[in-house]
Amino acid sequence: MKIYIDGSYYSEQDAKVSVFDHGLLYGDGIFEGIRIYHGRVFKLKEHIDRLFASAKAILLNMPMTHAELMKATVDTCRENGLKDGYIRLLVTRGVGNLGLNPNKCKKASVIIIADKIQLYPKEYYDNGLQIVTVPTTRNLHSALNPAIKSLNYLNNILAKIEANNAGCEEAIMLNSEGYVAECTGDNVFILKNGEMFTPPLSAGALYGITRNTVIDLARAAGIKASEPNLTRYDLFNADECFLTGTGAEIVPVVKIDGRVIGDGKPGKITRMLEEAYHSLTKVSGEPIYQ
Ligand code: PXG
Q1: pLDDT bracket for residue 283 (50, 70, 90)
Q2: Average pLDDT for 245-249
């Protein structure tokens, strides 16, 4: 595997960063997780746009333009002969000193890892996930806005540990007001009486690219989709529930905190959206192999 670091490719063994990089010292940086399907990078522009939005929010000076970063992403896939996989693109604040002042970091570093995708077990999609609400609440947007896809994921990791302790793969995270925010690495959706709902960004959800795609797909299918604040009660009494994310795509949820969702099987609209999403990943995206 060849890994891109600041314009050069390195083998896995030689792909290293400085111990003075503030990405390592402080989690000071941002990232994206992107899929490549059938030789096309899916929603590349959307991911690069979100990365730049994260950079803006943390006052990180991007060392490359949108176009250069898109090209570097595509080139890294091509360099690895990767046609189906997962791309991790990260930008760290760069090398500074031991103090936390980012002004001491001269130049941000860009790292692109294009790897095979570790797909979730088929069973999750066939039978649906069982998930739980966890005690760790989502970061306050007035403290560290969850819309920033930063390298500091401890909030999500603590929630993930709590989910794992409960024997679950994913967790519902609430915000400090008790409204549903999202899961540790996925957005959450419900269906009720034929309408679709997902928490608003203000509740602490990431502006998920799969989330956005699914909202578009639902609306194109004539399903009303809105973003109200949701409580656990709303989730428990939903007809259907599913999670969305770049890695997971669309995963049905059949049990939350011991409450059976709907009839306990993946829902009909969830299945329809899964199919619509799959037809999109077969044809959409930026072509990388001519
Ligand atoms: N919420 C959070 C907190 C995320 O990190 C999503 C939602 C889904 O967004 P997209 O744009 O992918 O539809 C994410 C992104 C993992 C992992 O290994 C998952 C993400 C990021 C990093 C690692 O599960 N998902």
Answers
A1: confident
A2: 97
Instruction: For ligand 1, say whether the CB of 170 is within 6 Å of any of its atoms.
Output: no
Asked whether 179 and 223 are in contact (CB, 8 A), the reply is: no
CATH of 2-115, one of 3.20.20.220, 3.30.470.10, 3.40.630.30, 3.90.1150.10: 3.30.470.10
Q: pLDDT at position 48, please?
A: 98
Per CATH, is 122-282 categorized as 3.20.10.10? Answer: yes
Question: Can you give the residue ranges of every domain in the chain?
Answer: 2-115, 122-282
Residue 246 CB–ligand 1 contact under 6 Å? yes
3-state class of 36 per DSSP? strand
So what's the pLDDT on residue 289?
A: 60
Q: Is the CB of 33 under 6 A from ligand 1?
A: yes
Distance, in Å, from the CA atom of 117 to the CA atom of 170, rounded to the nearest integer, reads: 18
Which of 43, 246, 249, when mutated, tests ligand 1's pocket best, judged by the most ligand atoms within 8 Å of its CB?
A: 246
Cα–Cα distance, 176 to 247 (Å, whole number): 27
What integer pLDDT is reported at residue 118 of this predicted model? 84
Answer yes or no: is pLDDT of 290 > 60: no
* φ/ψ (deg, to 5) at 204: 110, 25
